[in-house]
Write a structure and sequence with these properties.
With 468 residues, the protein is of the alpha+beta class. It has 13 helices and 18 strands. It is globular and about 65 Å long. The relative contact order is 0.10.
Length: 468
């Protein structure tokens, strides 16, 4: 075994590694935008896996000498008190840079200095912000294979080399890096067992020849203790603008957005049609429909406990869910299929020629992965986009209710023109999903962006009244 390999095994297997990092992680993790356990104390950490992608103390893999820079990949389980509707003991992916001395340009990425254990005296920092270490990840994709507890895979096309990486500062539940203007790498932070939909669904759409979603170029996974999707490399759509910014610009200029909304509806229908062709399409029968409605009620009750402002609206909101359950009880069936799961304007990109693409198929990160991978009615995505038009209009002053209404109508008409099915033809199911989405938004905003809480609360007021 080489000196570098011996170092890698020794550090990864060192039982003192995580305890020595724990004081730093206790302070650093809760400040990260993607950490889901905010507001709950951290009781302990446990190590799921550790791999030295760049062994500490070497300049390059296998060199055995160098200036002391390393890249340590960790999967760490965070143990916290359990709360309703929250996943216990979440697992997080960390890519930690290790240096003897941190240069000033990397100061914003500082995590802290280790005072004991195998990294005593070393400085630990967010490795993805180090261009050298981020570039090393791209090299791993160029030469796929198993490396420690990690496996790197890629499609058939070669991957360009020596592209300058940069971290996008707009990410929320994950971290993304852009390499040159060629690729974008999404690093999943909160890790769940099984294949992540953001890899599974784009691969399925690529097999169907659907050009509305960038096909994965490469990806990497953890191989033990079970397969876990860790990151996906996709083409970077240079020059494309996200739908949220386009909508806000239209509002600022007082410009209509119905043509864009109509085209986006058509793009959504194309993706749904391809997903239905690629993957199973079961029917939601009585038991499944009642389970769907019961889950919505459960989320509503949990949200009302977390956000007291919801409490007066609970009876009216619940009526929307009860209406769906009643239809299922009377024998009404609905088609289900794999869907995007978290569709809104910020998950869309429009090229200069007007071509719309859909991105980020991970689904709502707060929901368990098995739920996100479950076939659902396509109106789930429709409801998300309808809420997004309302969000855009509400975030602009003065509020332009007619702008949102026109966009909602145009989007549904575009969807119907391509799919042959108008989502408004199932009003009870659409209303229930829009209500469920608004409830999710209230809880999210209360936890992360309290200043935005009035936006979903306005929808809550409207939807509770409609349900009555």
């Amino acid at each position: 075994m080489s000196e570098a390999a011996s170092t890698r095994v020794a550090l990864a297997a060192n039982t003192a590694l995580l305890p020595s990092l724990a004081p730093l992680l206790h302070q650093w993790l809760p400040r990260q935008r993607w950490f889901a356990g905010k507001g709950r104390p951290i009781n302990a950490f446990s190590l799921v896996s550790a791999t030295e992608i760049l062994p500490v103390g070497t300049d390059s893999v296998g060199s055995g000498t160098g200036t002391g820079t390393g890249l340590l990949h960790l999967l760490v389980r965070v143990h916290q008190p359990h709360m309703p509707a929250q996943s216990p003991d979440d697992c997080y992916q960390l890519l930690l840079g290790v240096r003897s001395v941190l240069p000033p340009r990397l100061a914003p990425a500082l995590i802290g200095q280790v005072t004991d254990g195998p990294l005593t005296g070393r400085t630990v920092y967010e490795g993805l912000h180090d261009p050298r270490l981020a570039g090393l990840l791209l090299e791993r994709f160029r030469a796929p294979g198993t490396f420690g507890s990690l496996r790197f895979d890629r499609g058939g096309a070669p991957i360009a080399a020596e592209l300058a990486p940069r971290v996008l500062d707009t990410e929320q539940s994950n971290t993304s890096l852009v390499y040159g203007n060629a690729y974008i790498l999404k690093i999943f932070r909160r890790i769940f067992p099984g294949t992540n939909p953001d890899l599974e669904l784009p691969l399925a759409l690529a097999r169907e020849g659907c050009g509305r979603v960038p096909a994965p170029v490469a990806w990497f996974e953890a191989t033990a203790p079970e397969p876990l999707t860790l990151g996906v490399l996709q083409p970077f759509l240079r020059g494309a603008e996200d739908g949220w910014q386009l909508a806000l610009r239209a509002l600022t200029k007082g410009r209509d957005f119905t043509n864009e909304a109509h085209a986006l509806g058509r793009a959504t229908a194309e993706v749904h049609t391809a997903l239905a062709a690629a993957l199973p399409t079961p029917s939601l029968r009585r038991a499944q429909t009642e389970h769907l409605a019961a889950a919505m009620v459960q989320r509503l009750e949990a949200a009302a406990q977390a956000v007291p402002a919801l409490v007066p609206y609970v009876p009216g909101l619940r009526a929307a869910f009860d209406a769906v359950a009643a239809l299922g009880h009377r024998g009404r069936n609905w088609a289900a299929q794999r869907v995007h799961g978290d569709l809104h304007l910020g998950q869309t990109l429009r090229a200069a020629d007007g071509f719309w693409s859909l991105i980020d198929f991970e689904g709502e990160p707060a929901r368990p992965l098995p739920e996100r991978r479950r076939p659902q009615p396509p109106v789930r995505d429709i409801a998300g986009m309808l809420r997004s038009f309302d969000y855009a209009a509400r975030s602009h002053r003065p509020w332009n209710a007619e702008w949102a209404a026109r966009c909602r109508t145009a989007y549904c008409e575009g969807y119907a023109r391509t799919s042959g099915v108008d989502p408004r033809s199932e009003p009870e199911l659409l209303r229930a999903h829009e209500t469920d989405k608004a409830v999710y938004e209230v809880q999210y905003e209360a936890q992360h962006r309290p200043d935005w809480l009035p936006v979903p609360m306005a929808a809550i007021h409207r939807l509770a009244s409609v349900a009555d």
